[in-house]
Amino acid sequence: MSENSKYVILTEDNFENEVVASSVPVVVDFWAAWCGPCRMLNPLIEELAANFEGVAKVGKLNIDEYGQLANQYKIQAVPTVLFFKDGQVVDQVVGVAPLAVFAAKVNDLLPQNNSTIEQAA
Length: 121
Hints:
Blueprint: E1 8-9, H1 15-20, E2 26-31, H2 36-51, E3 57-62, H3 67-72, E4 80-85, E5 88-94, H4 99-109, H5 116-119
Parallel strand pairs: 1-3, 2-3
Antiparallel strand pairs: 2-4, 4-5
Protein name: Thioredoxin
Family: Belongs to the thioredoxin family.
Organism: Funiculus sociatus GB2-A5
């Protein structure tokens, strides 16, 4: 993983603060080092983190190191990407999908402050 990655490495120590208590939507990639599709997904996760920097948080959690969290969120296959809003899981993607799928799900969680309908008076 590169030093300039925009995503957060999640652990049992920081999960509560970084995900559950986050004031912005959070995308969590549950992955494992032995998982080929997880390695294929990694560049998409990095791009997603860069694209949504400042408005949403992206994190990665290694299920082999933090199996208790994987069990808590009922992760049965990797990669599984969970989408959190206000500390709750609101959506998920199991397996690899195009970046546009992940981006659309993050956009759905963002406040729609950019609406021009309300501003047109």
